[in-house]
């Protein structure tokens, strides 16, 4: 079990905000209020181990996730000043969009559900093509000036969309987004390793990556190619698009490669005295461009497994990382970087 004094903290982008390398979100378990008791135990275990970043969104359970998190924070009686709480805005129920009117109304409702005076980070939860970006960013700045949020970020924005944000901020004299919440794992690598690094270097953008175990695919439970009862892929409520994406790894054309990869990862994990999920999570946070990796847990036992990943970091030396790359066989090719011979700007 990881103790508080061994937790790793990193600056989120170029801000002075310190976040734990592991964080907890309630996307998977925030849809029904029936999960609140279990989630209290899960969040408590994370917080007691030093995790300080708690993430949710208005869309999760049409507000239920924010309600659950608010009740958990109140019941936990933790020091609010030591927590970093974020929520994301785009859609809740039938209300959609990032207009000034909607963002102001949505923030009021989210803070009420969270039982908080402010959130530390407000994320724009996908780009809104129907609202002028300048209007959205003016509304974000208004909410920050009113003390409803301390920082802002984006979620699943493209590099081009982020550059548009920087241009608007430069024009208006506003603060840049401090983080992008994007997907990253051993299986999904393109954004963090290819399309966004120039923004990490040039703008100090941080990341709060989600699905580091790729929806459970890297956990070890699918290593024999079957879908176990009670697993995420066996859940009938899983969105068809999500199911199709995950099941593509077991399609006839990919099945042998997938199972060989799983076996190779399991062998390395066994050698390191770790679970396969711990290896996948440790590999993710080993990347210096990952500020924090969001975990989702439905059982306390999963929390302890997640926390154990921190103990693997020192074992993932260059040689071990090369072995993992050989097993994965999916390293993306980044564009030519003509600055590679110059020292990289230090990360705070």
UniProtKB/TrEMBL annotation:
Pfam families: Aldo_ket_red (PF00248). The keyword NADP applies. It comes from the Eukaryota. Residues 22-327 form the NADP-dependent oxidoreductase domain. Keywords: NADP, Oxidoreductase. SUPFAM superfamilies: NAD(P)-linked oxidoreductase. One of its GO terms (molecular function) is oxidoreductase activity. It comes from Stentor coeruleus. Belongs to the shaker potassium channel beta subunit family. This is NADP-dependent oxidoreductase domain-containing protein. PANTHER family: HYPERKINETIC, ISOFORM M. Signal peptide: none annotated.
């Amino acid at each position: 079990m990881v103790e508080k004094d061994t937790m790793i903290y990193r600056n989120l982008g170029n801000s002075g905000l310190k976040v734990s390398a592991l964080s907890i979100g309630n996307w998977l378990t925030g849809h029904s209020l029936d999960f609140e008791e279990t989630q209290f135990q899960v969040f408590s275990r994370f917080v007691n181990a030093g995790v300080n970043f708690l993430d949710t969104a208005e869309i999760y359970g049409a507000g239920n996730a924010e309600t659950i998190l608010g009740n958990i924070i109140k019941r936990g009686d933790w020091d609010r000043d030591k927590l970093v709480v974020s929520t994301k805005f785009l859609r809740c129920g039938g209300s959609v969009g990032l207009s000034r009117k909607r963002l102001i109304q949505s923030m009021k409702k989210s803070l009420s559900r969270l039982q908080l005076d402010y959130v530390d980070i407000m994320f724009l939860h996908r780009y809104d093509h129907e609202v002028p970006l300048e209007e959205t960013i003016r509304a974000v700045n208004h909410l920050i000036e009113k003390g409803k949020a301390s920082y802002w970020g984006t979620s699943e924005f493209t590099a081009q969309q982020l550059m548009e944000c920087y241009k608007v901020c430069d024009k208006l004299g506003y603060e840049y987004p401090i983080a992008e919440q994007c997907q990253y794992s051993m299986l999904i690598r393109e954004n963090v390793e290819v399309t966004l690094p120039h923004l990490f270097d040039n703008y100090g953008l941080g990341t709060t990556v989600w699905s580091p175990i790729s929806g459970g695919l890297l956990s070890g439970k699918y290593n024999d190619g079957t879908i176990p009862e009670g697993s995420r892929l066996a859940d009938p409520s899983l969105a068809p698009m999500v199911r199709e994406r995950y099941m593509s790894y077991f399609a006839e054309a990919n099945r042998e490669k997938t199972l060989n990869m799983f076996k190779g990862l399991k062998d390395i994990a066994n050698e390191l005295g770790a679970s396969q999920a711990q290896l996948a999570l440790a590999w993710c946070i080993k990347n210096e461009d990952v500020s924090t990796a969001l975990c989702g847990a439905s059982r306390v036992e999963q929390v302890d497994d997640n926390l154990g990943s921190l103990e693997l970091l020192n074992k993932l030396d260059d040689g071990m990382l090369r072995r993992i790359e050989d097993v994965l066989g999916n390293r993306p090719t980044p564009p030519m970087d003509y600055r590679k011979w110059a020292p990289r700007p230090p990360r705070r």
